[in-house]
C-alpha cells in the first residue's frame, strides 16, 4: 500500500486510509522526504519500500534515506533518473539494498540492457503492454536472478486483478491501484488480514459495479 508525497501532518490520515498490509511503499524525492520517512516509521511497524520516482540527486542522498529505514528496508525502487542507471549498482553495493528498476525497464530489451544495474524489476501491466508480455518479462527476470515485483499505475480492479494472476512469480506485490481510485468501476482483488485475495468466478473473476445501461427513453 502506497503513501504518496504529502505534508507531514497528513501522514497519519494517509496511513488510516490504506488497508492493512505487510509493507508500505513510501514515495520520496522531495525536500520533506527525511521527515516523512521518520514519521511513517514512528506511526507504523511495517517494512518500507522506498520509491524515488527518479527524484534523488545522488547516491549519497539515496544512501542517507536508506540508512534511516535500516533493517526495515524492503527495497529501493527507481531512485535515479533513467540516464543515471549506473548509479543503481553503486547504491546496491554501498547499502546492500534491493534496488528495483521501474521506468528504466519498459520491455524485454530494457530488462536485458539493465539487468546488471538492478537487483529487481517492477513489472506493470500498462507499461509492459499486456499480460503475456509481463509473464515473459517475469520469466526472463527470474533467469537473470532478479527479484520480480508486480506494480500498478492508476488501474482499476480489472487491470490489477489481471496482473495478480502472476503473483506466484513475484516476491513483492504492489497492486494497490484500486485503493487509490475514488470510483473503481470494477470489483476484483481484495485485502484480508494483510493478504491479497484474488476473486473466484469465470475469467479473472472481476465484475462491473457501475450501471452501464443507457438511460431509459421516455415516451
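-> sequence recovered:
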Amino acid at each position: 500500500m502506497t503513501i504518496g508525497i504529502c505534508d507531514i501532518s497528513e501522514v497519519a490520515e494517509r496511513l488510516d486510509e490504506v488497508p492493512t498490509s505487510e509493507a508500505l511503499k513510501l514515495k520520496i524525492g522531495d525536500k520533506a522526504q527525511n521527515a516523512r520517512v521518520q514519521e511513517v516509521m514512528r506511526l507504523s511497524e511495517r517494512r518500507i519500500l522506498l520509491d524515488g520516482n527518479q527524484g534523488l540527486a545522488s547516491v549519497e542522498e539515496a544512501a542517507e534515506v536508506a540508512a534511516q529505514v535500516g533493517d526495515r528496508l524492503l527495497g529501493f525502487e527507481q531512485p535515479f533518473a533513467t540516464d543515471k542507471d549506473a548509479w543503481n549498482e553503486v547504491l546496491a553495493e554501498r547499502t546492500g539494498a534491493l534496488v528495483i528498476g521501474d521506468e528504466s525497464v519498459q520491455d524485454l530489451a530494457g530488462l536485458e540492457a539493465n539487468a546488471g544495474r538492478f537487483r529487481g524489476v517492477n513489472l506493470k501491466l500498462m507499461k509492459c503492454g499486456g499480460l503475456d508480455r509481463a509473464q515473459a518479462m517475469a520469466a526472463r527476470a527470474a533467469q537473470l536472478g532478479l527479484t520480480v515485483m508486480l506494480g500498478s499505475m492508476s488501474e482499476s480492479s480489472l487491470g490489477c486483478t489481471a496482473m495478480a494472476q502472476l503473483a506466484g512469480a513475484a516476491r513483492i506485490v504492489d497492486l494497490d491501484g484500486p485503493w487509490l481510485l475514488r470510483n473503481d468501476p470494477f470489483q476484483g482483488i481484495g485485502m484480508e488480514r494483510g493478504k491479497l485475495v484474488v476473486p473466484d468466478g469465470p475469467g479473472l473473476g472481476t465484475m462491473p459495479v457501475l450501471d452501464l445501461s443507457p438511460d431509459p427513453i421516455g415516451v
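Residues 112 and 144 are 9 Å apart (CA to CA).
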